[in-house]
Amino acid sequence: MSRKTLPAEGMAQDTLFETLEAFKAEDLDWHSGKIFAYVYDAGREAEKVGKDAFRMFLTENALDPTAFPSLLRFENDLVAMALSHLNAPEGGSGTFTSGGTESIMLAVKAAREHARQHRPEITAPEMILPVTAHAAFHKSAKYLGIKVVTTPVDPVSYEAIPGAIKEALTDQTILVVASTPSYAHGVIDPVAPIAAIAQEAGVLCHVDACVGGFLLPYFRRHGADIADFDFSVPGVTSMSMDFHKYAFTPKGSSVVLYRDASLRQQQYFACAGWTGYTVINPAVQSSKSGGPLAGAWAVLHHFGDAGYAEVAGRVRDASLRLREGIEALEDLQLMGDPRFCMLAFESKTINVFALADELKERGWYVQAQHRFGEHPQNIHLSIHPANVDWVEPFLKDLGEAVAAVRTQPAPQLPEGMMQAIQAMAGTRVAPEQLMGMLAMAGISGSALPSRMADINGLLNELPPDFKEQLLTVFLGHLFSPSEA
Ligand SMILES: *Cc1c(COP(=O)(O)O)cnc(C)c1O
Question: Does ligand 1 come within 6 angstroms of the Cβ of 101?
Answer without folding.
Answer: yes
